[in-house]
Amino acid sequence: MPVTFYSMPRPPANLLFDQVKLRFLGVVPGDQVRGLVPFYHFRILIKRTTDVGHINFRIGDTEHVRLCAGHIGYQVEERFRGRHYAFQACCAIAPFVRSIYPAVILTCDPDNVASRKTIERLGARFLDEVPLAPADQIYHPGSCVKRRYEWGLCAEQP
Ligand SMILES: CC(C)(COP(=O)(O)OP(=O)(O)OC[C@H]1O[C@@H](n2cnc3c(N)ncnc32)[C@H](O)[C@@H]1OP(=O)(O)O)[C@@H](O)C(=O)NCCC(=O)NCCS
């Protein structure tokens, strides 16, 4: 049975990797009108208390997830960049993601080098580049193509 908003399990408390710990803030409901799925929202902490950004894990397999947003979204505040915290956050969330999906889609804009390198450091497999649907372009101004990867979460991968 696919996981839905009503059956989304609570994530474990101890999602850690290297310098990063994730703090679960809650589930953000989807928005059917905009085709958005629900997602788990985590803050990315270093030294257990300093908040450096966030990571979201989307639940669903809609066209918007597969061709635009991907299952995982992250952001690191500018002053904390340059230390691979997004990579570490992905590694920290991996066991929880793996408990729900055997593989997920990760996407980035072709010119987003930091995100692209983060995804490639994870060992995700490049799939293709796809044009953004007109509806998605409204919410992602300036973005018209997405690079898509499959992040297969086998036990050996981070
Ligand atoms: C994407 C993001 C989370 C990465 O932050 P981070 O974990 O601090 O990543 P880093 O700064 O350590 O960069 C990762 C890699 O990209 C490289 N990089 C970062 N910015 C770069 C740039 N402008 N040009 C070239 N390379 C760059 C780094 O040198 C590093 O390379 P390495 O793996 O060879 O060492 C951060 O840039 C961000 O929040 N961006 C805005 C939000 C965003 O784009 N989210 C992703 C949406 S798909």
Automatic annotation (TrEMBL):
Any GO MF annotation of the entry: acyltransferase activity, transferring groups other than amino-acyl groups
Short name of any one Pfam family annotated for the protein: Acetyltransf_3
Annotated InterPro entries: Acyl_CoA_acyltransferase (IPR016181), GNAT_dom (IPR000182)
Ranges of residues in domain N-acetyltransferase: 41-125
SUPFAM superfamilies found in the cross-reference section: Acyl-CoA N-acyltransferases (Nat) (SSF55729)
Name of the protein this chain belongs to: Tagatose-bisphosphate aldolase
